[in-house]
């Protein structure tokens, strides 16, 4: 009893690369299932470190983990436009279609920057946004320290 689950004919599409999506994708990878992880960004953002990244230069790099390094060809960067449940297709912006036998939706939550990073951007662009934010905050902080007003 308690035999193996067959992976034959199974292709799982996971939409969303946040904590839930990568947990599902990691489990599918470990169990040998065919899967595709789809996210609009090219890197997972570990938002628990986001506030530190907003004040410590160089730390933002540590809060982004490129999906391709973990999931290789099982990762597709794109924005989902439509899920066609009749044809079992996920249709991405630009028309690319990804077929599935099983679908996991992990679209996550939204929130303001710097706590969340919900903008379509490359890993490099996302890290740069935090570095720019730090410079802006520091310039305003410096202004407040040495003047009686801030603007």
Automatic annotation (TrEMBL):
One Pfam family hit: Pyr_redox_2
Key words of the record: FAD, Flavoprotein, Oxidoreductase
Source organism superkingdom: Eukaryota
Domain FAD/NAD(P)-binding: 11-116
Molecular function in Gene Ontology: electron-transferring-flavoprotein dehydrogenase activity; flavin adenine dinucleotide binding
Catalytic activity: menaquinone-4 + NADH + H(+) = menaquinol-4 + NAD(+); phylloquinone + NADH + H(+) = phylloquinol + NAD(+); ubiquinone-10 + NADH + H(+) = ubiquinol-10 + NAD(+); menadione + NADH + H(+) = menadiol + NAD(+)
Matches recorded under SUPFAM superfamilies: FAD/NAD(P)-binding domain
CC cofactor: 6-hydroxy-FAD
One GO process term, biological-process aspect: apoptotic mitochondrial changes
UniProt name for this protein: Ferroptosis suppressor protein 1
Species the sequence originates in: Pundamilia nyererei
């Amino acid at each position: 009893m308690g035999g193996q689950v067959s992976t034959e004919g199974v292709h799982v599409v996971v939409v969303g690369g946040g904590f839930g999506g990568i947990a599902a994708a990691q489990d599918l990878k470990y169990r040998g299932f065919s899967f595709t992880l789809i996210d609009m960004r090219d890197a997972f953002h570990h938002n628990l470190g986001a506030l530190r990244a907003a004040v410590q230069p160089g730390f933002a790099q540590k809060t982004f983990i490129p999906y391709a390094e973990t999931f290789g060809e099982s990762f597709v960067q794109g924005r989902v436009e439509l899920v066609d449940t009749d044809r079992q297709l996920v249709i991405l912006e630009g028309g690319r279609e990804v077929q599935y036998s099983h679908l996991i939706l992990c679209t996550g939550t939204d929130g303001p920057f710097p706590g969340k990073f919900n903008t379509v951007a490359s890993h490099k662009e996302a890290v740069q946004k935090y570095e720019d934010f730090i410079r802006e905050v520091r310039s305003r902080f410096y202004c407040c320290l040495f003047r009686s007003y801030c603007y």
